[in-house]
Amino acid sequence: MMEENQLIKQIIGGNTHAFRFLVKKYERLVFHIAGRMLNQQVDLEDICQDVFIKVYKKLPDFRQESKLSTWIGTIAYRESIDFLRKKGESVNDFQHLNEKDFSSLIELENPENIKTRSERIDYVKRLINELPPVFRTVLSLYHIEEMSYKEIEEITQLPEGTLKSYLHRARQLLKEKLIKQNTLVEEWL
Amino acid sequence: MKRLDEKQNEKPMDYDDKVIDALWSEALSDNFQTKIPFDFADRMEKTAQQISLKQFWQEELLKQFSFFGGIAFLIAVAFGIFYYLQPQNALQAIEFLYKIRLMIIGTVVLIFSFQLADTWVFRKLNRN
After folding, report:
1. Do A52 and B44 touch (CB under 8 A)?
2. Residue A161 in contact with residue A175, Cβ under 8 Å?
3. What are the extents of the domains in chain A?
4. How many domains, in total, are found in chain B?
């Protein structure tokens, strides 16, 4: 396995094959972040291409103060925010989440007729689709990419306290829905 | 590792929280089937090659133009001084240079091409 420093040096030295290696290593992360933010497949590839072009051009300026994955994740996140803004979509909803009742953002009905495991997962998936893009991305970075609060903070520029509050609210939201269904949480798995 | 440290410092989650987190994780990994084109990395490599080539030529042309620009400037200054001191000689010199202009242009283009070719070959050798 090629060392990160070595990889960066090779790319800066003009080795495009090393860049291919970098793309292969981080394409999942970039597609995940952009995919969560956009929540659609259309335009996703273009955004991800732009992200990697930026990575290639800016790599000589990378000071290695953070992990390469976090730096690439930050570029992917910002590129997605810019894209959403250009499309006229509001990405600032999350800033007002503290004042709003979080549950009111979710217009999904309560899971009354859900019995099987796959139906439960489907229900949570629909719940995820209703979440604001930034919230969805934070959940994904924490649960799927298994990033630390510090890393997610670097990528999203959201304070650690806010991130913890998001994750707590997400748990509460699902719990509330389950309680309304009179289901024991343990039964869901 | 960091994530584990953070988890150890946090208040322990109750069982419900763990179950709920597991549910989020499963739904999240299921929810978005990211379709990464199988040749995405190959295409990005080609794009990087194009960018790198474009950057190379831009830098090289800029270098060459500054070099020849510098020479032209020095010649102009020399002629200026020459003209100021002995106008007659300067006119003769200009006339002579005008006569052999094609030869001068040809030489400049030749040197320019050699330098570009040299840089190109060195670049290729460095990459290999």
Report:
1. yes
2. no
3. 4-86, 93-188
4. 1
pTM recorded for the entire structure: 0.70
Q: What is the CATH number of domain A4-86?
A: 1.10.1740.10
Domain that holds residue B48: 39-127
Chain A partners within 8 Å of B11 (Cβ):
none
CB contact under 8 A, B28 and A16: no
Say if residues A25 and A19 touch (Cβ distance below 8 Å). no
Q: How many helices (H) and strands (E) does chain B have?
A: 5, 0
Whether complex ipTM tops 0.85:
no
Q: What is the pLDDT of residues B31-77, one digit of tens each?
A: 566 678 888 999 999 999 999 888 888 888 888 888 888 888 888 88
Residue A88 distance to chain B (closest CA, Å):
23
Residues of B in contact with A181 (CB under 8 A): none
- The third-level CATH classification (topology) of the domain covering A93-188 is Arc Repressor Mutant, subunit A (1.10.10)
For range A100-110, the mean pLDDT: 55
Query: Which of A116, A137, A114, A127 is CA-nearest to residue A38?
Result: A137
- pLDDT of residue B2 exceeding 70: no
